[in-house]
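Methods — Computational structure assignment.
A single polypeptide chain was analysed. Its primary sequence is given first, followed by the predicted tertiary structure written as structure tokens.
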Amino acid sequence: MLNAAGLVLFLMADPPNVLTVTIVASVVLGGFGMGLGYPATNLLALEGVEPGLQGTVSGIQNTSLQAGGAIGTAVAAAALGAYGGQFTALAADDQIAARTSAAVILAALALFGWLALLSLHRPFQPTAGRCARSCTSR
């Protein structure tokens, strides 16, 4: 949700103020959104996984997050660069078009990731070994 708010601020910025608003939108709101989202994603990825496989699953999940961030950054940079030249040297209309293209692409990638995460959701079912240890101590 905070990432979405950052994208909205990013799109609403006037060309003279775009750098300041972009920094606030992407660093502050996006950072808080990702800081809250990564642990939740990790918990969901590990939900119901056998204890012996949790390290492997966690490694795959973290690698996927890192790769997705790199791909998203590259795609957004390509969208911004498609308008030619240095971003701050572009005409105001081209800055708005470039920012809109980048934000739409990032929003689409985020939506795709969210849908992929939802499709993988499985109900929690504790394993017998985990329940045996925790259930007997109650």
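Note: The chain has five helices and no strands.
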